[in-house]
Amino acid sequence: MADQDRTTKYAEGSLTLAGTVMLGTGVMIGAGIFALTGQMAEMTGALFPLAFLAAALIVSFSAYSYVKISNAYPSAGGIGMYLHKAYGDRLPTAFNALLMYFSMVIAQSFLARTFGAYTMQLFGGDESGRMVPILGVVLILTAFIINLLGNRLIQGVAGFIGVLKIGGILVFGLVGVWLADSVAVDFSGAGESAGVGGFLGATALGILAFKGFTTITNSGSEVIDPHRNVGRAIVISIAACIVIYTLVGFAVASNLSLSEIVATRDYSLAAAARPALGEYGVWFTVAIAMLATAGGILASIFAVSRMLAMLTEMKLVPHSHFGMPGTIQKHTLVYTVVLGLLLTAFFDLSRIAALGIIFYLIMDIAIHWGVLRYLLEDIGARRWVPVTAIILDLLALGGFVITKLASDPFVIGVAVVTMILLAAGEQWFLKSNARKRALAHQGHHHESHS
């Protein structure tokens, strides 16, 4: 009976199409424009608004595989289940699913740090360097409490925040462009172009701004009419963000020089609001940033804990209750929050973003390869689309790694070591006697209730 009580339960039909879109855009918009804009400008110079568009092109090809699989196999396990459909109970499934899990945890830490960086602009910045992570930790803990209270509250809060932040960001973008001396971007004296490698690296960061659409796949079993609405929510979320990112990118570039954008890379939208709108504009932008990042944290924790719960129930990752009551999904919610708190406390924004995009792109390539190799006919996909997605992913990943090897090789080393440890640990677990006993117990449990 105890085992049965721990089974993760999902409320079918508890998420509407609009609510699902808000959960997806919550992660995307929160991370995409508030902190990545400055980092992208640092990597590629004057072309950073175009890097957002290049990222949108790559994500549009990538989304095809997710939409096709979502329509065929909607699931609360999302990407974890999609990988399992392609690769089965093998290392590629567990390894790539964990890469996605960690990239999503990294995304929530990125959002939390961004929340702290913008909030501190109301108080003149954070010279001590202590308040940004503290505020980020408080935000994650608040989102954790809301997630414990159920889907309808999550959807309601995310929807309310989503409407406010999207409206506010559109106001910022439109007014910023309107008040700028010229929409033409002028970075004279900013130095030489970063070249193809820098542009591809910035494009990879831009992909991180769109990857929140994958959180939608983790809500599959809870969305109304999931065989249609999961795919629809993905398309709508990406389309909305393309418009918003393009508008805001040109608003920032029209009001700040390149050197100013780079210098304020952790809060560039607030800096861009000052010359265009004055101090009231800064306060307005900070308020929108706080709402956007808070909504993103809420949606990210909601989605990633469900994916890890599904991997646990599929016996693809080890799990310990650590004496906690409740379902596995409640436990994975705790693990997700704890990891997010550690990253928020000890990693800066640029390194958090670097780890996130490396893990995500490798997993994304595995999804497309799984479609090509195993699922093409089952889901009715056209071969050339995932092939193109793989090529574009490899170009972005290669450019990003080359750029980071020159500027911050430590973060590339952390990524490589982490992936080696994940692969070795998963290979050991998949062959362990503990997993065999768990599978045998699960089979016996199913037989006794059939």
Automatic annotation (TrEMBL):
InterPro entries according to UniProt: AA/rel_permease1, APC_superfamily
Superkingdom of this entry's organism? Bacteria
**Membrane topology per the record?**
Multi-pass membrane protein
The record's subcellular location field reads:
Cell membrane
Asked whether the UniProt record includes Transmembrane helix among its keywords, one would answer yes
Instruction: Report which residue ranges the record marks as coiled coil.
Output: none
Q: Does the keyword Transcription apply?
A: no
* Keywords for this protein: Cell membrane, Membrane, Transmembrane, Transmembrane helix
Q: So where does this one cross the membrane? A: 15-35, 47-67, 91-111, 131-150, 157-179, 194-213, 233-253, 282-309, 330-347, 353-372, 384-403, 409-430
Protein's name in the database: Amino acid permease
Q: Which organism is it from?
A: Alloalcanivorax profundimaris
